[in-house]
Amino acid sequence: MLRLIQNEWMKIFRRPGTYVMLGLLLIMTTVAGAFIKYQESGGTVPDNSEWKRGLQTQNESYQKQLDEMGEMAPREMKEQYQREIAINEYRIENDISPNQDYSIWGFVTDTSQLIEFAGLFTIIIAGGIVASEFNWGTIKLLLIRPIKRGKILASKYITVVLFGLMLLFILFAYSALLGALLFGMPEEAAPYLNYYNGAVTEQSMAIHLIIYYGLKSITMLMLATMAFMISAVFRNSSLAIGLSLFLMFMGGQVTRLISMKYDWAKYSLFANTDLLQYFEGVPMVQGMTLGFSIMMIFIYFLFFQALAFYVFKKRDVAA
Amino acid sequence: MDTLVEIQDVTKVIKGRTIINSVSFEVKKGEVFGFLGPNGAGKTTTIRMMVGLIGITSGDIKILGSSIKTDFEKAISHIGAIVENPEMYKFLSGYQNLVHYARMSRGVTKEKIEETVELVGLTDRIHDKVRTYSLGMRQRLGLAQCLLHDPKILILDEPTNGLDPAGIREIRDHLRMLARERDMAVIVSSHLLSEMEMMCDRIGIIQNGKLIDVQHISDFVQGEEKIYEIEVDHPEKASSLLKGAQPDIPIQLTGNSVLLPLVRDDIPNLIKNFVQADIKIFAVREVTKTLEERFLEVTEYKEDAGNA
Questions:
Q1: CA dist B69 to A140, A298, B28, Å?
Q2: Contacts of B101 in chain A (CB under 8 A)
């Protein structure tokens, strides 16, 4: 198995396209760093003395709006405001200023947007890894080895996951390094304030970011799995990559639109892949829980894999 | 055990159409078996079934006694194959391609790879990208790929397709050498008859998904009797002399020679008769039927029989 993964890895890294992807990821991070650094040098550190009063006024205005709208307030807005109020109160009580100097952690948080690109590249690899063998005709030589087809497909999937994890690691490590170089380490580590189930807790920034990365990458992993499935079933890398990218950019929006009117939107894959909604935001459809989402993700995952393996094993390799 | 490959009553049905219709044959150790048939007759389909690329509707294929259906890993480990063109990873070097396939079989050492490269004569170019290879070199790399794990059986689909005469000769020599010296069973398919004639010990003819004949190449080409061409100064005179002795004999006259079917032992007698009749003989030679003529004869005959 290890040697099969080694093979797949070799086939990925002997192609120049892979290095273009890695290069793009690094360049984008660097450009983001340069841009933020340039902006920062123009601005001043905000005045720290008045922040408590500021937060208080903010809370009052939130509360007022909530009271005024009463039952009319949309659920999402209500929960969002409640969260803000709780965190602001916590800050005032524990004397944690929201105005932190921009540091390495701020930069890593900002560049985590680039996970989407890591996802995109992983989808490209996942969409091609089976379909390309058919296009190249090499599948014929690949499947006449004393190895079961299921094992070959599994090695390809594991390679995709490893590739995705590698991109994430590179992104995280590089932006942490660049952040530390450009913006420095914070003088005193400000904790991240986590609001979950009505309670505010403190969390170390580094741990928060790692969890944040992990949760964000679930979307990416699921889409890569889908691209992989399409690749194995339809032997068409363009279809696999195109469809997965389309869903990556549109899936969330469309599901959100549907969820405004229909409850069944919660069974959509895209309503569930963003687990961050349970920690940092508001669930897309009321009544969705973390457990429900994890289960849905699991069901979709099994479905994709079962389909990919079933078709790949049964397929007659002709022409 | 001398029989390495057994094809047992294999049938393949795709979407209600019978592509292969109960084909059976065996291939023995040390022989080159040719699989001959016009395009679309089912050669490639049969070969794909033998290497497990496509499923078998009914019947079974046994490789050294292991079924390709139920014991795939064991059966396939005895086979080295090229199915159609030897497609390799073009962005890898020849060597990396071989390493790739070596990793997928048990116990292929670095030395074994080097040795195989040497055998197919690619030592100079093995570290270049496959993209830069000529078709002949790709074919040789393909051969190297299927020899890596020392298979007992070699299956090549149209191995000489697109090669120049030198390349064809090279492949042919390789195959004969492998069959003879390593006692491998070699199965090749082709629609090029002249090539099969030089390469194979036995051939099976497939047409419309049915195996219509399996014969030794010499029997196949010759049929029952041999034809001799005798070059003389007066063909008409020779012809009438022969007709006088045997009125039924089918004699052909061409320019300055006569052609007739003969048994070897009759030749001295015939020459004596000619000499006594004052006919000058310049040459007596055996005319071998080409495989092509024979092939068309067989397939046409079977077709007629099938239609009647």
A1: 17, 33, 21
A2: 141, 145
